[in-house]
Amino acid sequence: MTGSNQAPTERRPEVIDQRGPWPFVTHRVFRVDALEQLWSSRHHRKGLLGRAAAEREQIAAMLLRCLWMPQRLNWWIGIIFGFGSLLFAVASVLSLAPALARAWSLDATQINAIFFMGSIPFTIAAYLQLFQAANAGQFQPGDTPSPSPFTLFGWRPHDIGWLSCALQFIGTILFNFNTFDAMLPSLNWFQQDVLIWAPNIIGSILFLSSGYLAYIETCHAYWAWKPASISWWVVLINLLGCVGFMISAMLAIVLPGTPNIEVVHLSIVFTLLGAICFFVGSLLMLPEMVFSEEAPT
């Protein structure tokens, strides 16, 4: 009897479960031989690794470690976005507290300049996130992701993560125009609506769309309650920030006549609340790098 030199047949990965908010798939479970492997859209595009829950004595060390991880793009995204959010919050507080602004010798134009300076880190962080999503390699069960061709922006409208990042990036560019135009002197009500309010409301709509896409990408559904997952908290708090910016933009429209001071202040309050949410969400992106476990569903 002669032996066979035929190589063993390589088994192809089998998808045993997949789900996500239609028309996107954000969660798959693969079976390779007797092993199962999970793919999650957000974790894949951000390079987050599934990790078992840490022991209590490890948590403090992991939190300290995540404060300084400059070798990780996610760390830069969180830090830069947090810095922009902090500038928005500071400018909002100064707008609501004229006495404090006078104590710092700041007028309205200078406060608007702080808003503009805050919009720049927003755009930088949003682009880094878009760049990260555009260059996420193809997932291969049982192996490391295959590298994709290097691209500055990419075109993946079928990919919920890329689409969320792209909408956010465009929204931040509109905020650049909106906050810059707010520094222009002697604008009438119509010019303010065209140059300031229009990019503000469109940018806020894009932010809200982006935030909801990021939320359902993480939830794998249109709505889910996952308080055990830090990624869920990141996208939920960011989504609340998007809602705050949206309400602020809706209230910020300028009409002919004397402006309603109460409505103006309320608009700024929602800008402040949105900025606080973005700041907290940005900070949570740091421990997300080390506590990136997928909550049971």
Helix content: 55-70%
| pLDDT < 50 stretches | 51-57, 293-297
Radius of gyration of CA atoms, rounded to a whole number: 23 Å
Tell me, rounded to a whole number, the average pLDDT: 88
Based on Cα principal axes, name the global outline.
elongated
Coarse structural class:
mainly alpha
Search tags:
single chain, 297 residues, 3-stranded antiparallel beta sheet, disordered C terminus
Describe this structure in words.
This protein is mainly α and 297 residues long. The protein has 2 domains: 14-41, no CATH class; 61-288. Helix content is 59%, strand content 6%. A 3-stranded antiparallel beta sheet has the order 1-2-3.
Indicate the topology.
Blueprint: E1 14-19, E2 27-32, E3 35-40, H1 41-45, H2 56-66, H3 73-96, H4 98-103, H5 108-134, H6 160-181, H7 189-219, H8 230-251, H9 261-288
Antiparallel strand pairs: 1-2, 2-3
Helix pairs in contact: 3-5, 3-9, 5-6, 6-7, 7-8, 8-9
